[in-house]
Write a structure and sequence with these properties.
elongated; 3-stranded antiparallel beta sheet
């Protein structure tokens, strides 16, 4: 993901599930920490292990970057 903001993502930042259209939209995904400093304009690769729900349907999840204080630091995407 590209850091298109104005602050550096430090190891205190994480990609975290925020919400979804149904509870199962999280698909077991857990927060993924940033493991190095990512300056504005740089990219970082996240790997998120997800488990598909058994029931067919539409599952839409939204994830945010969160800072060390667990505050959402950028807009949702998903």
């Amino acid at each position: 993901m590209r850091n298109s903001g104005t602050c550096t993502w430090t190891t205190g930042y994480a990609l975290a599930y925020t919400s979804g259209n149904v509870p199962a939209a999280q698909m077991g995904g857990q927060p993924i920490a940033v493991t190095r400093n990512v300056n504005p304009g740089q990219t970082f690769d996240f790997q998120v292990n997800l488990i598909a729900p058994i029931a067919p349907g539409t599952y839409q999840g939204f994830w945010n970057m969160r800072n060390a204080r667990a505050r959402d630091s950028v807009k949702q995407f998903g």
